[in-house]
Every structure is written in C-alpha cells, then in structure tokens.
Design a protein that fits this description.
Blueprint (H helix, E strand, L loop, with lengths): L1 H6 L19 H10 L4 E4 L4 H10 L8 E5 L4 H9 L2 H28 L6 E6 H7 L5 H9 L3 E5 L3 H14 L5 E4 L5 H6 L2 E5 L6 H4 L3 E3 L5 H38 L12 H11 L2 H9 L5 H6 L5 H4 L6 H26 L12 H22 L6 H23 L13 H6 L2 H28 L3 H8 L9 H4 L8 H10 L19 H7 L9 H8 L13
Parallel strand pairs: 1-4, 2-3, 3-4, 5-6, 6-7
Helix pairs in contact: 5-6, 5-7, 11-13, 11-16, 11-17, 13-18, 16-17, 16-20, 17-18, 17-20
Length: 554
C-alpha cells in the first residue's frame, strides 16, 4: 500500500476496461421454481460477501423474511489478531471463533426448526472461515447447520473449497448433488458432484468439457431437471420394476412345475422359449416405454414443480412398490400354471389324444407372453402408436415363431416333442377359451389395484392428470424446447424464422430469394416475425448494379 501511494500519484486516466458480470435472463424465476420443487440450492462463488449477498437477493435465494446466519472473518477481533502477524495464533483464534459461531448458529437454528411458524434459515460464510469450518473436527457441525438452512451462500471460496463443500454434502449427508458452473474455476466442483452441468457461456468451454450435461443458459436447468429429469426417473423406475415382474412371473411358472416332478430337473418350457422370452417376445415394448412414456406434459411439469418431490422421496422405487410387483407376479404365475394345467387335464385334441407336457407348456407360455405384454400397457401414462405396434408386434412375433418352430422338423432335431403342437392346440376350442380367460383372470387383480390406488391413494401426478384431463396436449415442439414465453424479442424473431421452410435460393445464396424479406415470408406463413429497421437497408444494398460495358478494342 505504501508503494502504491508513491507510484499512483499525479496520473492521467486515459481509459478503463472491465468485464460485464451480470445474471442471465430467467435466473431468479428458475431458482425460485427449483426451490418449490424441493431442491436446495447453494451458491459457491469467488465474489466478496457484499456482492454474493446482492446476487443471492437478486436470485430469490435470500429475502428479508429469512433468518440469516453470517459467519465472516471481517470482525474487529480477527483483525486485531491478524495485525500481530503470528500465523499460528491467527489460525488458532479464527478456528475458535468459527467453532463458537457454528455452535451458536446451530443452537439457534434448532430452536427455529422445532418452532411451528419459524422463519426460513440462510447461512452465509466466507472462504477464510470456510477453510477452518471444513476441518474434520468442525465439518459435522457445518453440515448439520447447512442442512437445516434453506439457502447457503459461500463467498470468497477457491476452486478447491468448492469441491470440498460438494464432497461434504455428497459423502457426509449422502445426498444426490448437482453442480453447475460456466468457468474453469468450476471444473473441480463439477467433477466432485454426482451430476455436473456446464454452461457454454463467455468464459470458455472448460466447464462444458468436464460436465455430464451442457446447456446454453442457466434457465434451461429447469427443463433439464423438472421435465427431462422427471420423465427419465419415472421411465427408469417402470423399466426396472417391469423387468423384475416379467422375469419373476415367467420363472415362477416353472418353479410350481418342479413340485410335481419331484425336483427332478425336468424343464417346463422348451429351451428356445426361455432363450427368446427376453430377447424377442417381451423386449421391444419396454424399450418403447423407456423412450416415450411421460405422465404429464412439459408445460405442466414446469407449472407444478412440486411433482419433482416424488422423485426426491423415491416414491416409484421403494420396497413397497417392488413388493407389490412381486405379489402380482406370484399371483399371475399361479393363474398361468394351475389354470392351464387343471383345465387341460380333461381336454383333448381333435384326434382324441390327451394333451401332453409340451401342449400344456406351450399353452401356458402363450398366456404368459400375451399377459405380460398387455400388463405393460396398464402402466403407461401416454400410449402412442409405437406402444400398440411394439406390443402387438411382440405377440405376433411369438405366434410366427411357434408356427415355424413347431411346423418344421429335421432328422437332427432333438425337440420332436414340440412338432405340430401349436397346430393341435389351435384346432381345439379349448385354446381360444383359455387364451381369453387366463389373461383376464391374471390381470384382474392388477386392474382392481390400479383403480383403487388412483381413486383413493393417488400420486401427485395423477391429481394433475385429473385436473387437466380435458385439456389438449400441448407438448408441441415449442414446448419441448422450453422456449415458450421466456425468449427476448430478438430470440423470438430468430426462432420464428427458423421455423420457416428452408428453400435455398438459386441466385443469392441466402435462405430466401432476397435478404431482408424474412418478415414478409413469415407473415405469409402465419409466423409472427416483426420487421427490423435494417431490412429496408439490406434490400437497398442488394439492388442489382448495372453491369459495366466492355471496353471496345480497336
């Protein structure tokens, strides 16, 4: 400071340069929406405390109704110790002060936490105090205090401290963490979290290269989490539980058969039936569900961010959900085995012969394939033509296979017992009655359970479905891209122009015959694209100039 006073004197200011650092559009609304979804948001920034607090207020992370716990190293007592210059004493004193502040704030937070109408809590801590708060002896206290707060702001933190705070929540609290940043100083934090999101902004691409997902603006995080994240969670839960159900159902039918064979190892199904069950006969429908199923539209997902809390509570993958699937798998396997075996004991083919093992097993397997595929449609919230094609195609694939497999026999075929089985079965009235009644009896329990659950114990998304069941589906292209009413006028115009047909000009190389006529073409197609002031200038600049006359050569 003394050297600066000697040098920076009698200077003439020629100019100044600076980097504009401001919030992107839609950030406050995005953060408020994510908070309503039950997501706790922490701000880890290198800005000084005053700037960080102002940013938190601008982002709706802090408000005047909150009780704010501020742990800062900018106190008179700490300054007095720092003036002495003893580093050991400084470290010991700051650590003791941080410990006192953490204990005081934690005790006060517990009182507010147990009160009925207590205010929301917020923690603000600077980097110097955070360095000591992350000490093994204090980090548990810091974690408990932070988890009781609705918002946490850490200012003047280094990239390493960002990663340490993320790891503290990730490992200490065993919470799912997501880090989002746009600069190289956020890379360690992004890599430390379960999920890293990079913003491709003006600060380079380092954060994007180190992240799992990349977005252009912070506000798109709402679509990433509340729309696509929710849909992915629900789809994964359905796919996993359905795989468990269909394989348990298929396996248990063979398990009941072993009680009647003395556990001799005699198989109930043909080897090819078992091999192709998961590969062909039940594979495609569950893939379609994993790709296309959605409970509510994207606009409703953003309109009701509280729906995201079902995923936080893991409502669709609890042990209770798995137990219900297992119960109905046991029930259906009993229906498949005993209904078919008992009814076939008095049945006979057109030739008068009694049905044998392979006739019964083929009949049971046909019922399993039909029922399991139809059961998938009952868990779909949205059914498209691809669902019908996949389910119908899987059932047709089974019949095509069994027609060929049981209709052809070679001298080297060891499965002569399967020969002509399906044709014998289909020549009887018993086959069609069983194919109709067994799936109905097997799915009756599921149908009753789903009806009772939806009427008396509905999930949140089912309530939203009932509220908006008479509304048209608004999941158009504009809504899927998340650009509904959040665009600036320039962005809205650019998007409107992007929807126009791209007809390459033969003359100018532009997308239209003449530059500057975009607004005119847009209006002809019913797309609103306001005319720009420079459109006239562009058209004037592109007027054809008279060609110069060639010089005459004498």
């Amino acid at each position: 400071m003394q050297v600066a006073e000697l040098i920076e004197k009698d200077l003439i200011l020629i100019g100044a340069t600076a980097i504009e650092d401001k919030l992107q559009e839609g950030v406050p609304d995005c953060i408020e929406t994510l908070s309503r979804a039950g997501i706790k948001i922490w701000v880890l920034t290198g800005d000084k405390m005053e700037t960080a607090i102002n940013i938190a207020y601008a982002c709706n992370l802090l408000n005047n109704e909150m009780k704010q716990f501020i742990i800062s190293s900018e106190t008179d007592a700490i300054r007095e110790v720092e003036e002495r210059g003893d580093q050991v004493e400084i470290a010991r004193f700051i650590k003791e002060e941080v410990k006192k502040q953490l204990k005081k704030c934690l005790d006060e937070a517990q009182q507010y936490f147990h009160s009925v109408s207590g205010p929301k809590l917020a923690l603000i801590i600077d980097g110097k105090c955070l360095m000591y708060a992350l000490d093994p002896s204090l980090r548990i206290m810091l974690l408990n205090l932070s988890l009781n707060c609705s918002s946490v702001v850490c200012c003047r933190v280094s990239p390493l401290q960002k990663a340490q705070v993320t790891s503290l929540v990730k490992k200490g609290a065993r919470k799912i963490t997501l880090s989002i940043g746009d600069g190289a100083n956020d890379v360690s934090m992004i890599q430390a979290a379960h999920i890293g999101v990079g913003i491709s902004g003006l600060e380079g691409m380092q954060a994007v290269m180190a992240s799992d997902f990349a977005i252009a603006q912070f506000r798109f995080l709402k679509e990433l989490l509340l729309v696509h994240g929710r849909w992915s969670y629900i789809r994964l839960c359905k796919v996993v539980t359905y795989f468990f159900y269909k394989n348990l159902t298929f396996t248990l039918t063979q398990f009941w058969f072993t009680f009647y064979t003395g556990f001799s190892g005699q198989r109930f199904y043909d080897d090819w039936f078992q091999s192709l069950y998961n590969v062909i006969f039940t594979a495609l429908p569950v893939i379609i569900v994993g790709l296309f199923d959605k409970d509510v539209s994207s606009s409703l997902s953003k309109r009701y961010p509280e729906l995201y809390k079902e995923g936080i509570k893991n409502m669709f993958f609890k042990w209770r959900v798995v137990a219900i699937w297992a119960f109905f798998a046991v029930y259906q396997s009993l229906v498949f085995y005993y209904f078919v075996t008992v009814s076939s004991s008095t049945s006979q083919g057109s030739s008068g012969k009694m049905f044998g093992l392979w006739d019964v097993s083929t009949m049971a397997f046909t019922c399993v394939v039909v029922t399991v595929n139809l059961r998938l449609l009952m868990i779909c919230n949205s059914i498209t033509r691809w669902h019908y094609i996949s389910v119908g195609g899987s059932i047709v694939a089974w019949f095509l296979f069994i027609f060929l497999y049981s209709g052809i026999m070679t001298p080297y075929d060891r499965q002569e017992n399967i020969f002509w089985v399906i044709y014998v079965l289909m020549s009887t009235f018993y086959f069609y009655i069983t194919l109709l009644l067994v799936p109905v009896a097997a799915l009756l329990g599921d149908f009753l359970y789903l009806g009772v659950q939806r009427w008396f114990f509905p999930y949140d998304y089912q309530i939203v479905q009932e509220i908006h069941k008479d509304e048209a589906d608004d999941s158009g292209r504009t809504d899927l891209l998340g650009i509904d009413n959040q665009l600036t006028p320039d962005e809205a115009r650019s998007y409107a122009l992007s929807q126009l047909p791209r007809e390459l000009s033969k003359h100018t190389g532009f997308a239209f015959d003449s530059p500057g006529y975009e607004s005119f073409f847009a209006s002809q197609l019913g797309v609103y694209a306001p005319q720009k002031a420079w459109d006239v200038a562009r058209r004037a600049s592109m007027r054809s100039k008279p060609k110069p006359k060639p010089n005459k050569i004498n």
